[in-house]
Amino acid sequence: MEIFQLILCIVGVVVFSSFVSRFIPKVSTPLVQIVMGAAVTWLPGFPETTLNPELFMVLFIAPLLYLEAHEIDKSQLLKTLKLSLSLAIGLAIATMVAVGVVVHAVWPSVSLAAALALGAALGPTDAVAVSSLGKEASLSLRQLGVLKGESLFNDASGIVGFQFAIAAAITGEFAVGHAAGEFVLSFIGGTLYGLAMGLVANWLFETVRSLGWETTTTRILMELFLPFMLYLTAEELHVSGILAVVASGLFVRFDRTGIGPNVARTNIVSSSVWGVLSFSLNGAVFILLGMQLPRAMSTSWDDPGVSNALLISVILLVSLVVVVMRFLWMAGMLRIARDVTTGKRRPMTPERWRSAAVMTFGGPKGTITLSLMFTIPFSMSWGVPFPMRDELIFIASGVIVVTLLLANFMLPLLAPNRDKLAPEMTEITIEILRKTVEELTGRVDDENRRAVLMVIESYTKRITRLKQRVGERDPQGLERLQIDALHWEKDYIKGLLAELKMHPLDDAAEQDMRVEACERMMDDIMNTLRHASSTPGSGHAVSQIRGRMRAFERRAENLGRRISSKIRRTTPLIREDEMFAHSRLLQLDVMEHVVDRLYEEMGRDTYSTEHCSALILDYRRAEAALKSRPNMGGSAKAITQAEEIKRESYGIELGVIQDMLEAGDITRAQAKALRRNVFVMSVDADSSI
């Protein structure tokens, strides 16, 4: 039961951290999750957490590295492979030696072998943290390629070096030749095994699909099962499970070929499942890290026999050694690297020194370091307790925090994340619409085919119009005109309602029909205006609540009036087909009113003439589409279904925007503007069904 409570707690904190990080954009999400993970451990009744390093590696690190390897830019990785491998192997070994010598010299109570084990554990960078750096800083494709490539390959060198250093600390013997041989076997063996299994997986996926045996469920389960199977079997063969997972992830291609709704649905579901899994595991990794840090550090901090000042000093010294070693290594590699075109070594310019600093702070330590430190045995081979075990874990935990803080605050200073230029918003919007169409295509079945195709057609028109408007000098001006046109629609309907109340019709049923049609359209317009408004602050939130309350009151009043009329049998119950026909006739009247108003505005200086003419053309298109339907009442069911799908499509658009924000493809400011644009475009005349 405690394990189940722990899982629920972690999932809850992951969800909550995604909301909290929105309000503190200057602090990276991993740091937020570490703090929240540490905070929940102080809650009363919180279950005791013990990190099993082996379980942690197979449950979290293996699938995350597999997905990271699969999604990495392969061409960029090949371009930076030499530099990535030099960091993953050369720098990891150099850091291991430097940290070991310094810690042993400063604190002789720590044996040289144990200090080398600490240095080996501090070699790997955190792949999960590295993947989030592009969202907080403007890193070039080369820099991201180097950092991600390093994080994929350096785990093996760190793990192997740590294991042999610990073996030397326990037994008092260290065979350099044997260790080097084991390292080569683990490195090459894991890579070859991963490549071989990647070949098998590619053949299996293609064969199952070609034979028609594939279903969405089996395909997703096969993809999810692969990284866990790879890691466990590689470890059983005594080769690097991490490298097997990485090599296979680089080589396996999730076959996206084929046609038909089943293949499209499988591809969409697969991407969605991996997206959810990646987000959940990423968050869980840092939350677990935060949960472990207090326990890892409290034992040494509360020990009266250990100087806390010495502990802090060693943490700062080791952090300095790690950072300086990394900076010197990066600068040296950049200096000796030859230009691709000229073949000559380039001098170190200020820009290249800054690049070295960016990649220095872009390699924070994380969960693999802490999980390795927890594998330090409690006793030596002859039975005595392992000396300084708690202190070594404390130092590693402190260095993790320091490097994460440096990455969070130094990277934005060295490589500020500049907002993309406004003209790119049109291309981004077109990409969002395309992804929405792909999602809708995967939802087609025999019952909703006509309705979905109607919605897809409206999205196709929006994409075409956006392509025509590429190069628009004042896109905000058109948006303002669209919102003002909504206000004109609202005022016109208000006037109709006032007229109906002052001069009711003789036919009570017709009166109720017209009033409810006006109120329904008014609710739709007000809902769109509330979402499209850019006014910040609590006043806007209060206005939204009041608007929703008024809409709820109107609907409750209409429902009460219907029930009362039915009970008294004074008027027949309103049929939806009749209501649909009245609503469409009202919409035609409203469109004609707005078009007349736009013609008037074209002779004034309030709005651009081109914007007015473009919006008139949109309204005329929608008006012609409505009039071309020979039987509005008969098509009410299909149109109603299409409108429901249209509302779902807005949710899909918002989900795509959030996915692009989390992937670092767009900035927070762009995401906010795009969310507003979803609601503004929803009232665009030719986007209505």
UniProtKB/TrEMBL annotation:
What are the record keywords, sorted?
Cell membrane, Ion transport, Membrane, Sodium, Sodium transport, Transmembrane, Transmembrane helix, Transport
UniProt-recorded Gene Ontology molecular function terms: potassium:proton antiporter activity; sodium:proton antiporter activity
From the Swiss-Prot or TrEMBL record, state where the protein is found.
Cell membrane
Return the InterPro entries for the record: Cation/H_exchanger_CPA1, Cation/H_exchanger_TM
Where, by residue number, does the polypeptide cross the bilayer?
51-69, 81-107, 156-176, 183-205, 225-252, 273-291, 311-334, 355-380, 392-415
- Which biological process terms from the Gene Ontology are attached to this UniProt entry? regulation of intracellular pH; sodium ion import across plasma membrane
What PANTHER family does the record tag this protein with? Answer: SODIUM/HYDROGEN EXCHANGER (PTHR10110), SODIUM_HYDROGEN EXCHANGER 7 (PTHR10110:SF86)
Pfam family membership, one = Na_H_Exchanger
Q: How does it sit in the membrane?
A: Multi-pass membrane protein
Q: Where is it mostly found?
A: membrane
Q: Which GO terms describe its cellular component?
A: plasma membrane
Q: Any idea what this protein is called? A: Sodium:proton antiporter
Q: For the Cation/H+ exchanger transmembrane domain, which residue ranges apply?
A: 15-413
